[in-house]
Amino acid sequence: PDLDPVVGQRVEFSKDKQRLQLTVAEVTDDAVVFDANHPLAGKTLTFELLLLEIEGESE
């Protein structure tokens, strides 16, 4: 099918019953380059959590 890819666009492909989500990284007249990394790859992630219990031997 005719597609009009745009840099940053997320697209989904299926191969061997596995779905892949890719990001259009570059578009030229004769090629499209995709980035298959997770969207959060290379980002700094901060998590906030609540520790409910510590199991194990007490001192």
Automatic annotation (TrEMBL):
Signal peptide as annotated in the record: none
EC number: 5.2.1.8
Protein keywords: Chaperone, Cytoplasm, Isomerase, Rotamase
Catalytic activity of the protein: [protein]-peptidylproline (omega=180) = [protein]-peptidylproline (omega=0)
Compartment(s) where it occurs, according to its Swiss-Prot or TrEMBL record: Cytoplasm
Molecular function (Gene Ontology), one example: peptidyl-prolyl cis-trans isomerase activity
Enzyme class at the top of the EC tree: isomerase
Alphabetical list of InterPro entries matching this protein: PPIase_dom_sf
PANTHER family assigned: FKBP-TYPE PEPTIDYL-PROLYL CIS-TRANS ISOMERASE SLYD
Family label: Belongs to the FKBP-type PPIase family.
Protein name: peptidylprolyl isomerase
Natural source organism: Methanothrix harundinacea
